[in-house]
Amino acid sequence: MFCVVPHRLPKMMPWGLRHSFRMRGNSFQTFGPPPLLRSHKVQQMEFLLAVGAGKLANDYLVFGNIEGKLRSPRAVSRAWKRVVGTKGLPKVTLHALRHTHASALIRAGVDILTISRRIGHSNPSVTLDVYGHLMQGADAAAASAIEGLLR
Asked: What is the number of helices (H) and of strands (E) in the chain?
């Protein structure tokens, strides 16, 4: 079971949605979901079966609308604010969560190419420019590795 998420949400314009995906073969990023998202997908499947809509399509978005299609950025932000308010969570924007996600992956030692792909940067150099300051201790680890090889 995989998550399919857009690289970038479309922008809401007065005349409708303007998709601003950067095309890299496919405009959607696919990756294995954490357990929390698996349970969300199970809930989606149970709901669709309960209302007689059948099973999830392969391109059904995890956080899409009722049909599994893209939601407008405004709808996503409003839903997020509702969840934050009802759960009593700190008021954090979705963009801040994106930075938190990338920072946590860096701290966990995930390679920069994987992080770059996961957060939808067009190039790993963009990720390094934004998050390079978080890679403290990387030089010490590199020096230690070389020292180990030279012994």
From this structure: 6, 4
Q: List, in sequence order, every residue forming a beta bridge with 17; answer none if it has no partner.
A: 12
pLDDT in tens, 19-43: 444 444 445 555 566 677 778 778 8
Q: How far from the centroid of its chain's Cα atoms is residue 102's Cα?
A: 9
**Tens digits of residue pLDDT in 46-59:** 888 888 877 777 77
Q: Where are the domains of the chain?
A: 1-89, 92-151
Buried-exposed string 1-33: b where 16+ CB fall within 10 A, e elsewhere? eebbbbbebbeeeeeeeeeeeeeeeeeebeeeb
Do residues 24 and 54 make contact, with C-beta atoms less than 8 angstroms apart?
no
Cα dihedral 117→119→121→126 (10° resolution): -110
Burial code of 70-85, b = ≥16 C-beta within 10 A, e = fewer? bbeeeebbeebeeeee
Q: Please check whether residue 92 is in contact with residue 107, taking contact to mean a CB–CB distance below 8 angstroms.
A: no
